[in-house]
Amino acid sequence: MATSSASGAMGEEESKRAHDDDEYELLRRAGWKALFGFTTKRHLPIAFAASFMAVVAALAVPALAIMYGLIFRQFTDYGAGKISSSELLSHTSKYCTWMTGFTALCWLACNIFFGLFVAFGELQARSARERIFNVLLSKDMAWYDTRDGGMAAFLPTIQMQIRDLQLSVAQPLGEAIFCLVQALAALGVALYFSWNLTMITICTVPLIFFVMSVLSRRMTKRLHEQAGQLQQALKCLTGALQNIEAVKCFNGERYELHRFIAAITRAASVFNRQANVRSSQIAIMQFFTLSIFVQGFWYGSHLVITGQKNAGQVITTIYAALMTVQAITTFLPQLIILQKGKVAGARLRMLLEQIRKDNSGPEIQGSQKPDHYSGNVQFQRVTFTYPTRPDQPALRDASIFFPAGETTFVIGRSGSGKSTLGQLLVRFYEPSSGQILIDDTPLGTLDARWLRDNVTLVEQHSVLFNETIRRNITLAKKDEPVTELAVTQMVEFALLEQMIQDLPSGLDTMVGNRGGSVSGGQRQRMALARARLRDTPVLVLDESTSALDYVTRAAVLQGIREWRRGKTTIVITHDISQILPEDFVYVLDNSRVVQEGYRRTLEAKLGSAFHTFLASVQEEHTKAVTEPKGRKLSLDDTDETMNLYAASWGVDTHRRSTIFDNSFLSPIFSPGRNSILVAGSLSECRRSSVVQLELGRSSPLPLKQPPNSQRTSYDPTGTGYESGSLRTIGGDADRCSSIESVPHPLTSVQAEEPVHLDTSIGLSFREKWRQKKVRFRRRNWGKEISTSNPGSLSLFQIVRTVWPALPARSRLALVGAALFACIHAAATPTFAFIFARLLSTFYAAAEQRKMALIYALSILGVAVIDGIASYCFHFLFDVSAQSWTNVLKAEAMRRILLQPREFFDRESNSVSRIAECLDHFAEEARNLPGRFVGIALVAVAMVTIAIIWSMISCWKLTLVSLSMGPVLYLITACYNVISHRWETASNEADEGIGEVLHETFVNIRTVRCLVLEEHFRTKYRESITEALKVGLKRAIYTGSIHGLNYASLYFVTVFLFWFGALIVSRGEFATTDIIQVFTILLFSLNHVNYLGNYIPQINIARDAGSRLLRLATLPQDSHERRGTIQVQTAGEVVLDKVTFAYPTRKEQAVLRDVSFRIAKGSCTAIVGSSGSGKSTIAALLLKLYETQSLPVFGPPDFLVSGRDVKTLHTASLRSRMAMVSQSPVIFSGTIAENISYGLAPSSSRASMESIRRAARATGIAEFIDSLPQGYSTVIGEGGSGLSGGQAQRVAIARALVRDPDILILDEATSALDAESAGIIRDTIQRLVEGKGGARDGDMTVIIITHAREMMAIAEYIVMLDKGRVVEEGKYEELVRNRHGAFGRLLRGEQGEG
């Protein structure tokens, strides 16, 4: 088995690697046309108009270059004495007038082209979203089942790729066209004035092109690799958040944090390689940009000296050539955006092609729409295998006939193929062989919508949408109007009147994501109300009442029988009590139909499959009416129970299988078990290679209990306790944890080692100082951000979080980046100074050649230094920014996992929103310190150096230029405000799109069942239309000022040229000084001017950073962190007048003055109707929520082991408990990892022997052993699918393997057949009773159930109704009390309780 597993894993790894290589090859071939993969004919007019205006704006710049050359010629001629001062001023004024006109044209053209390109990006995004949504909606269920990581992780990736594509084809694409046209036009100008000087100057361009193309291919590969790693991080994130209750209950927070950090660390490693390539691109381009002037200036001087060209022609040529190269250089930082967009566009197109060509194919629609449908359904020798389990047939040669107008039952063990019938009937899947007929018409030929309009499937785990109760019911009619009377009738049918009356908003109450704010039974009843409103000819009920209590179930089933009289109804169930003697039954076993017939006939056949199934139920019924001591209860007291057909079950067969023999009970489930938690000392905190993080208080670590330990009772004085089962954890020392200590998946960092309270013991002074600094920075960081609205964080507030968050190496990199940025900043003024000195050689007679050569070689030295500095500053800033982003993401994940359960109930904290924030927004936020802080630092340093240098050369001209600063600042500030406002609105609109996308495809089965594709298509179209409207407004408002922001510097330049001519003509300054100031200021301010082009992207990054910091600075004041008393063993549970309402519905009390006691070692059943508050008690016991009373106002209302649960250390409390919920949670991982989830790898409980024992105890071992990979079979998202019963048994095994002090079973057997449920009941009873049936007070079991057989194994019953305890007592006493609430519940009677 191990060899098989290993070879299978190696095969999968090789297959994945080959798949990645194929994907990269496709991406490489896609090229730049991938940017336009979603362009339609309707987009072309906008694209052409935008491109035309970009060309116009770009052509204005070379025209300005010509004006520069002409003006500089006037200054050089004046310096050489060729023209007078009046001529200088007159000519300069004329050229400045022309420059003003060209600048105004550039202003207008930039406004238009920017706005049009933003609009084009919005249209591209809309097109991509629509096409991908429609293609996804057309896929069959097999495609969804085989998504690696599941749809929850898949969808945010699509969102991020669309955003990358949208961003790239907006401003960056416009910039690309602008720069390309500018470069070509400037090149044309240069060739016109001097073709030979131009060719000499740009002779190295082919080499630049070759180097850049090689680096571009490497960049594409790195971007593809990073996208894959980010998707793995998303898989970890969404898996944890979707199952947050299970993660908390099993203390899996640290493990999930470790997984997430490992994933983002891998992604960061790929990004650092990507940053290396990008920095190399920029550095090489920067070197060539300056170095080309070595040969250009040298040859230009030669042309002037020999008289072939005058100074003005040479200067114009060189300036034009400079503009050619500078256009490319300036665009380089935007190139990464275009490359990301190219990769995103290619991946989206590739995704569309893969979806279309996928072997699972699109959903077969069919074409036939019969006018009449009587309701006959026939399966003819159908064989079917799920795509996730190709080696395990779900149905084998099954032939079944469901006659029209009759109710037919399908029963069988878990995993026998019952639910598969319903899945095939609504055509989620196609049979491997055989066929299904609807009124003699093959199912595959029928129109899929017609079919689902006539067949309703109600599954066990009913899904509600994030709408009101009313809307969830009326969705049965899609978007057709439904009268209030019809809704009221459906509510009455589903027995929801009382629940709705208790809600302040009634039918208009929001049910939350997937109906999370209502109980499982209430969800099932809403789903039945929805099915009743549909009223289709065929109804398939797949365990659709399993979460209902007997009273409600009896009434609902009676209502269903009356409603479905004369209509085809297929009931898939484990509950034989629903089946009447005259009902027809099919029995499935091992994926085959093993028996069929009317119940009364099948019962008479001894030894048959039905008889065996019935015998197991009869035995459970017999157990249920037998007292624990073995004395039979009088049948006179129990013959009116919910099972109305007990008389026909006259089979005296008993199944007494032994689950745990004596050897098995030791060491894990030994009756003499005394393993507890002892407070010791936390192990020394180890520094993570990524970032030193803490996850709240340390989880408890199990040790063996001393022989003399005793049970603890509550000390009413609150000053102490009777024995050593509880211990206070002091201070903050326990909060330190190691992230690196998890060696294999699906295990926590707990280990069977003592817990050290003082983390400073044994640490060096340096380590102690580091810990203090980390805590200080984290406290100050939180205060800094939490005091302001995250949506309005300033750039300074975001940037100032960078330094405190960085580890030492990243801080050193940041310092180095700042140093190299200053060197890079100094290179431009230095180059400008040398450039000015070179210009002076054109009119200086002495040693022209020698001085030209010296200055040309000086430029080469500046080019080398600037190239190195450019690489270092870009790379180091990127690396530091990635480190900062990873710290924020890890800290955000840590704090999210520390949030109370109510945090996840709020819509603003939905899985899709958090996933988008930690994925797409985190990537955008990285640009702030990675790109824009560096650019801003360079701009500030460059301007500072330029101003100082210029002040020395010509203070008057410099002061005049500085006087323009406030005007430029005002324009930039207005642009920034407008851009930030609309970028924020755009991000919010995109979040809304993500919500709809998530709701549609995570719940795709329900969407398909109810034929709601068009409803959600319309809803999605509305959301993307709203986003488009916001985007178009953003284009108009930001475009209106973008041109002015860009052209403003040219207006200032025009004024400086005129003023410079004025003061030179007056003889106040020498011509050389003025030219020197011109070149220094122009070169420097041109760099600064391009910073304005990044303002929209800066604001995108600012909004993204604000959202990321909101999560990274979430409060850590959860009630889960308040307890400091460590639990060694969980004993007696006491509720004393507990009142509770969920935080999202504070006006609706779920529990009202609930008081009862659960003794240690007892088995207590909490029963009652759906929504009565049963599961809420379990949530309070596990500290998922906190009761509303405060200790200062009286005695505690909820106690464990005699202590107020609020004062208990949460992780240690949960480590002594295990809960099995009604909806089983399966994590993405192997079966063995799922069972051992939350256990330390070194723990004996996590050994394969213990895992196998737990699997045998739940009756799933045989199934696991039959799988090719056995316990190494991957299940969960992206793995093999399990039936509901199989998943439930894995969840129960996970609870049993932990050997808890308190075991909570919340409807844990509702998805199991009678035999499997019997195995679980036997296991639980033996665990409670111990060897030989003698109770030793070892394990406390709390059973929350509607199942009478589960109630029967309990010693004590607590019955709730409407949040109050209406009856409690021993099981046998309550059964005898025929007039009591419990007796009525068992008999299925309504009555006062």
TrEMBL record:
One of its GO terms (molecular function) is ATP binding. It comes from the Eukaryota. PANTHER family: ATP-BINDING CASSETTE SUB-FAMILY B MEMBER 10, MITOCHONDRIAL, ATP-DEPENDENT PERMEASE MDL1, MITOCHONDRIAL. This is P-loop containing nucleoside triphosphate hydrolase protein. Keywords: ATP-binding, Hydrolase, Membrane, Nucleotide-binding, Transmembrane, Transmembrane helix. It holds the Pfam family ABC_tran. The lineage of its organism: Eukaryota, Fungi, Dikarya, Ascomycota, Pezizomycotina. The chain crosses the membrane at residues 46-71, 98-121, 173-193, 199-216, 282-298, 318-338, 812-840, 852-877, 932-952, 958-978, 1043-1062. GO terms for cellular component: membrane. Its main location: membrane. Residues 377-615, 1133-1387 form the ABC transporter domain. SMART domains: AAA. Residues 52-340, 815-1098 form the ABC transmembrane type-1 domain. It is found in: Membrane. Residues 696-727 are annotated as: Disordered. It is a multi-pass membrane protein. Residues 706-726 have a biased composition (Polar residues).
